[in-house]
Design goal:
9 strands; Rossmann fold; metal-binding; three-stranded antiparallel beta sheet; alpha/beta; SIR2/SIRT2 'Small Domain'; six-stranded parallel beta sheet; binds nicotinamide-adenine-dinucleotide; 34% helix
């Protein structure tokens, strides 16, 4: 409502250090399925089967098929007004000499595609690989990432024995080791360097925006309670209530592609057409 928006605008105008946390919901309107919501990826496939180091050790072919499938979906997707509004807002913060950082749990790269530059990819990127042997991390946008994945659609978990031979999966150009997606799987920790960047972004942050995340995956789930406890203002943008809601001073219910531009005062007609 209007009063809520005006109150938020006053907080926004005063804030000197603004941090944003985004999740799969901000990309939902770009046609990328979220994890836990309706049509969520984890309702169709079991996370433990596909996004764990054990799964990759057991069946790297099936895991690569899953990530190839997700790359295909994301390759066709374009940023939506949520991404564009945050990119425009970053520019405004820069002009006003404010400190701005965008922490994202998404691995789709759409924030950068929309023009955001102060981005920390907490869970890695669909567009990067890491060598299991020498640890080399590279950007790789080739589609498909290896010949054997050509023409493959959704992974077939009912016949997981139909495997691509491991030598035909993506290999490291430096040492020929097996490559894996450079993403954080269940049971894995975030990189040290990333955790330091997060600490910096949350320390003395006077406004935290939390958009499109179910706020159940740690450590990101702890950011709203932390900033709130330290006296910062927290604003949530989500279609539903989440466990983080009770730590939020402002709650904007509705699709973030509408609520973010509105609350940040970014006119929709000034954003790129989607
Ligand atoms: P999640 O699926 O658990 O939660 C999505 C949240 O977004 C829900 O709270 C839902 O209510 C909300 N939502 C859905 N549509 C929305 C909309 N239009 N506007 C505003 N909110 C909306 O996702 P999460 O919290 O990001 O879960 C974390 C994990 O999901 C991370 O590990 C992340 O890497 C992964 N993930 C990433 C992508 C991507 O890169 N696009 C996609 C799926 C999952």
């Amino acid at each position: 409502n209007r009063a809520h928006l005006a109150e938020f605008a006053a907080v926004l105008a005063k804030a000197r250090k603004i941090t944003v946390l985004t999740g799969a919901g901000v990309s939902a309107e770009s046609g990328i399925p979220t994890f836990r919501g309706e049509g969520g990826l984890w309702r169709t496939w079991s996370a433990t089967e596909l996004a764990t180091p054990e799964a990759f050790r057991e069946n790297p072919s099936l895991v690569w098929e899953f990530y190839h499938y997700r790359r295909c979906i994301v390759a066709k997707a374009r940023p939506n007004p949520s991404h564009y509004a945050l990119a425009a807002f970053e520019q405004r913060c820069k002009q006003e000499g404010k400190n701005f950082k965008l922490l994202t749990q998404n691995i789709d790269g759409l924030h950068m595609q929309a023009g955001s530059t102060e981005v920390v990819e907490l869970h890695g990127s669909l567009w990067k690989t890491r060598c299991c042997h020498c640890g080399d991390v590279k950007e790789n946008r080739e589609m498909p990432i290896c010949e054997a994945l050509e023409g493959k659609g959704a992974p077939d978990t009912t016949s997981p024995d139909a495997r691509i031979p491991v030598m035909q999966l993506p290999r490291c150009k430096l040492c020929n080791g097996l490559l894996r997606p450079h993403v954080v799987w269940f049971g894995e920790n975030l990189e040290r360097k990333i955790l330091c960047e997060v600490d910096e972004a949350l320390e003395d942050c006077d406004l935290l925006l939390v958009a499109g995340t179910s706020a159940v995956v740690y450590p990101a789930a702890g950011y709203a309670p932390l900033v709130n406890a330290l006296g910062g203002v927290v604003a949530e943008f989500n279609i539903d209530k989440t466990p983080a809601s009770r730590h939020c001073n402002f709650k904007f219910r509705g699709p973030s592609a509408t609520t973010l531009p509105e609350a940040l005062g970014i006119p929709l007609d000034q954003l790129p057409q989607t």
